[in-house]
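Margin note: ligand = magnesium ion.
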Amino acid sequence: MIDKSLNEFLGNTKKFIIESVFNGWLKLVNNIITTFAFTMLLVQLMDYTPEQSGDKQRLIVLVFVVFGTLVLRHYLIKAMNDASSKIVCEVKLNLRAKIIDKITRRGMAYKDDIATSEMLQLAGEGIEQLENYYGKYLPQLFYCLLSSFTLFAVVVSINVKIALVLLITTLAIPLFLTALLRMVRKVQRNYWSSYASVGKEFLDSLQGMTTLKIFMYDEQKGQILEEKTEDFRKHTMKLLAMQLNSIGIIDWIAYGGAAAGIIMALRAYQAGTINLFGAILVVLIAGEFFVPMKQLTAFFHIAMTGVTAAEKITKFINVPDYKSGDKEVPENCDIKIENLNYTYKNSEFSLNDINMELENKGHIAIVGPSGCGKSTISNIIAGELVIEAGNVFYQNDKERVDMTDVKRQLIPEMITKVTHNGYIFKGTVRENLLLGNEKASDEMLLEALEKVNILGELPEGLDTELLSGGSNVSGGQGQRLCLARAILHDTPVYIFDEATSNIDVESEEIILKVIEEISKDKTVIYISHRLKNIDYSKCIYVMENGKIVDKGNHNELVERKGLYYKLFKKQEDLEKYRFGREA
Ligand SMILES: Nc1ncnc2c1ncn2[C@@H]1O[C@H](COP(=O)(O)OP(=O)(O)OP(=O)(O)O)[C@@H](O)[C@H]1O
Ligand SMILES: [Mg+2]
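Resulting structure:
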């Protein structure tokens, strides 16, 4: 009934769980005193004789005890709830921090492990439900065991048989829940996968709404979404039915057990084996045995929904991290890729025996047909994909360090990658640019905007408000803003992966000049389908099907008349044809 794998998220909560269970136990003892005092009060009232002043005094004391313990009960419940809230806050913080930490460490590669929509569901609702496991279910489980034995100790002093019947029927409840566990987990798992499936479909449709509208596919997508939602409804109903049925069975056990205890107490009173006080006490206390167990059953079901979500969260958190070493990156180093092989987890594609020398400072290009592996290599160089040791090295005259031995946080300080789809955050242009360099002055920001030829297009300059994903700027403007941000980052290595693909011809000219300028004192790895942009590269790597098939400068490659020449020629012909038509 306790999931050991979840203990690692307990953190500081153990002490709050103990606090909650202890307060619960104090509340129980307080309840027992109330019941004792109330029973004695009833018995006293039956034998009450006004003439005896002792009786009156005793009655007053008992009334005070009953009211006093009732007030105390209120405070103990509050203390229990406070401890429970502390557990919830601690666990939520702990888990969300772990998830964010993991996403940050995995970078874009987190999408290989979990879909974004599922991540949102788990980090939001999943954790909300998991809080019930830690905040309600765990304390209640321990409290139930403690209360059963405490109440047993009270009743056993009145009658051993009654105490045993009550204890056994009480303990039958957690045993029954344990027996249910496998089925509950199966139903919960199906419920979560169906929920995740609706989430994925919904997010995908929302993100691609414009495309769906253009191709008039929105109705069909709506139909698919409806089918998935119906499937989710069925799984939810199955889950609720299972919960209600098991709560029903638990009610039978609880009321049956309490009734058996009460009947046995009344018969024992009739037979004279227990006195009136004992009989009334058992009648009042029998219900107490089962109240915590009934609550445990309710908590069990909501907690198990969270536990199933936690299985996925734990799986994600436990995905092996990138190896992070403790070495520094050598100054002014070349990047050497040696005999690198790489295969994606969920794809047939692989990079085979890649060897590259990315010399410090200068313009190096990677070209090749779509899908040949250019971006995969750039992601490896940028440290976004996990690779084995012995494949990528940072090397200068004095030392040679394996990439996997370097402190991971140093890689983003060394390499800036600019792609065609860099992200624009909601906020001002200034806020977006400061991500590149938080210490940059307004002058530096304006200079960067000027370089990428966008300043004139921002109505309020640095204070221009941008919407999430750059939805209020054009694709080309967004790309130029991302370039400006990258320029501000000022790292020794830059990767431009189709970074100018959305940009108009005039802006592209300006940006290519900026990139050429950058390559004078930095290493620029330039990936582009437009081969005209790279004819000045000191080395061009030509790729095909995950392999490097040629390398050299533009003239050498053209002379060899290999794949590069074919691609170059094809592009030249296309452009001639286009310009011919335009003329
Ligand atoms: N995250 C991923 N998971 C699985 N397979 C992937 C992933 N990313 C890319 N691939 C596969 O790897 C192959 C190479 O992709 P890559 O993005 O490196 O190509 P590319 O040369 O950059 O192409 P393009 O010029 O179109 O950008 C593709 O066939 C693609 O299917
Ligand atoms: Mg690519």
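The CA atoms of residues 558 and 565 lie 5 Å apart.
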